[in-house]
Write a structure and sequence with these properties.
This protein is an alpha/beta fold. 28% of the residues lie in helices and 24% in strands. α3 crosses α4 and α5 runs parallel beside α9. It binds flavin-adenine dinucleotide.
Length: 322
């Protein structure tokens, strides 16, 4: 049986629909490596994914059988892993499934939960979670007086990466809780209509707002995103006007993103929009109103008509590719 360091950080890694580790794995293990010894948990039949986890910095990889049902087998596995490892903290991705597992784990075990963290650190008393709140207006640290602190980490927020480790795996025996779990009875595979990256966790995002004016004109946002290899997002005003589906919405009541590059086109920068994108590493805004609040947080701003500026940006980027 593997030995677990006193400063172990348990990291729940998710498996993508394509069968590999989810993109969030690198950031989670990088965050864990910064505050302790990362121990990965993968709930999968594909035990070979343990190699990928070790490459990303996991000192030990626990592999658990996925079992039957949605979410509950992951919570069961996380409970068993936590009992075994006795970690200082547990890191989980801020994905739909990750949030579900983290919340249920905390409710079942009474563990403290810190949601939507953009980073973690350690002081003499333990692990702290960092949050960007109220539209990024405040940075808040949360810590627990008892542990382990369960931290749900925003995707893309952590740049740090762990160092590759020699592969040490352990098959985790999971006592089945028998808690009621939803089951998938049938499903229809959705046809992937575009090769664009998924908004949540994308390294680059181009978003459009009400300034686009119509769904037809919103195509310019998509064209620019494709040239950059970026995901497409939108403000709520653009969603409410029917330019794009709600799944594109970035902000307080939409998706939170932390990409390397966020481009806001025809978006004023309301606090509810900023809440979902202010932690982007570089923010570029194009807006014809020089007083638009988005310029307060932009690293680069262009005051101008986006229908003039963006086609020029597209042409320039395309000419550089040749
Ligand atoms: P506007 O504020 O109308 O801004 C449009 C901008 O486009 C303007 O700045 C204008 O100068 C510019 N523009 C117009 N034409 C051009 C052009 N040709 N070239 C360049 N610039 C141009 N909003 C979100 O985005 N996400 C959320 O999750 C969200 N949640 C909310 C939750 C609550 C409870 C509430 C009350 C509101 C929420 N909102 C959210 C709405 C938010 O308050 C704003 O109304 C919304 O973000 C505005 O979207 P916008 O910037 O696209 O539109």
């Amino acid at each position: 049986m593997a030995q677990y360091a006193a400063d172990s950080i348990l990291v729940l890694l998710q498996v993508s629909p394509g069968g590999g580790l989810a993109k969030s794995a690198a950031g989670l293990l990088g965050a864990a490596a910064g505050v302790g010894t990362p121990v990965a948990l993968i709930v999968t039949e594909a035990a070979e994914l343990a190699h990928d986890a070790a490459e990303l910095g996991a000192a030990v990889v626990l592999v658990a059988d996925p079992g039957e049902g949605l979410t509950v087998p992951f919570v069961d596995a996380l409970v068993a892993a936590s009992d075994l490892v006795k970690p200082d903290a547990i890191l989980v991705s801020n994905s739909v499934d990750g949030r579900d597992v983290a919340g249920r784990f905390a409710a079942r075990t009474g563990a403290p939960l810190a949601v939507d963290a953009v980073g973690v650190s350690r002081d003499e008393q333990g692990v702290l979670a960092h949050h960007s709140v109220y539209g990024g207006a405040y940075n808040v640290d949360s810590a627990a007086t008892f542990g382990p602190l369960v931290v749900v980490v925003r995707q893309g927020a952590v740049d740090a990466r762990g160092e590759a480790q020699p592969l040490v795996t352990e098959t985790l025996t999971v006592p089945v809780s028998g808690k009621p779990a939803a089951a998938v009875e049938s499903f229809e595979a959705a046809v992937v209509a575009s090769s664009r990256p998924e908004l949540r966790g994308a390294a680059k995002v181009v978003s459009g707002g009400r300034g686009l004016g119509s769904s037809e004109k919103f195509a310019l946002v998509e064209k620019f995103a494709d040239v950059l290899g970026a995901a497409v997002g939108a403000s709520r005003a653009a969603v409410d006007a029917g330019y794009v589906p709600q799944s594109y919405q970035v902000g307080q009541t939409g998706v939170s993103v932390s990409p390397q590059l966020y481009v806001a086109l025809g978006i004023s920068g309301a606090i509810q929009h900023r809440a979902g994108m202010q932690t982007a590493k570089t923010i570029v805004a194009v807006n014809k109103d020089p007083d638009a609040p988005i310029f307060d947080i932009a690293d680069f701003g262009v005051v101008g008509d986006l229908f003039v500026v963006v086609p020029q940006l597209i042409e320039t980027l395309k000419s550089r590719e040749q």
